[in-house]
Each structure stands twice: as C-alpha cells, then as structure tokens.
Amino acid sequence: MLRMVVDELIPVAESKEQSIVMKIESSLIVEADEQRLEQILNNLLSNAIKFTPSGGMITVKANKQNADLIVEVIDTGHGISEEEQQKLFRPYYRVPADRRRYDGIGLGLYITKQLVELHGGKIWWKANSGKELNLPFLYLWQSVEQSSS
After folding, report:
1. Rounded to 5 degrees, what are φ and ψ at 81?
2. pLDDT tens digits for the chain (149 residues)?
C-alpha cells in the first residue's frame, strides 16, 4: 500500500523534474486503516512535492521498529527555520515566505497530525543538515509484521 501511494504521485513529481526514492522494507506487511494511512502519506508526499524545487529529491522510508511502523518523508526543499518548524502542525499555519508562492490554507499537516494521533501514533519534524526537512511518523494502528518470504 505504501508503494502504491508513492507510485501514484511519481508522475506529479516527474512533472516538476523531481525524483522520489523509496526505501521501504520489501517484507513489510501493515495491517491498518488503509484509507487513513493513504491520506496521511498523500498529505506528506503532496507537501514534499509542493515545496521541493525542480531537480530536487524526495525520499520515503518505511521500516518496522519493534511492533511499530516508522515512515519518513524527507524532502530537499528550501528549508524551514527552527522557529517555523515549531509551528508546522498548527491549524491554518503557513510559513510567511510561502503564503504568496504556494496555494493552500495551512490545514494539511494539522489534519495529518490528527489522523496519526487518532490511530495511537505520533508525528514530528526532524531537522537534517542543509535544507532537508524530515517528517517522520510512528503509526500504531493494529500491527506491523514482516513476512517470512
């Protein structure tokens, strides 16, 4: 399912001359509210595509950590100050410099956070070196197993 969401958005990224790299454990099996997990991933990937410039790269990682699913969406966008990162998940919040350049009303990450938390998970930002923004989330819906194949 994770690969399906990424595959659906690859043409959008390619139209902006961006590349999407998937680092998803091949044996990962996720039992989850598929519709909500898809919405979470779609929101995070759409944001990454929106804020990553032409020629940029977006990385999607997913792996099992104990009984939990950890998913990371990492983009090489223009970067966000630490002060602005503290406000990312607030309703209607948009980085002031982006308000005129990009469409939206500032609810995507807020809704994403609500969905993750409704399923017992958590989402946070993780600053990387340079201009990368990493938005990992922990998803605890039902169970995460690895197939024996």
Report:
1. -65, 160
2. 788 889 999 999 999 999 999 998 877 777 778 898 899 999 999 989 998 999 999 999 988 887 788 888 988 887 777 788 888 889 998 887 777 778 888 899 999 999 998 888 888 887 665 566 677 776 654 433 444 44
**CA distance linking residue 54 with residue 78, whole number of Å:** 11
Q: What is the DSSP pairing of strand 133-139 with strand 122-123?
A: antiparallel
Amino acid at the residue 54: S
The CA distance from 131 to 71, in Å, is: 20
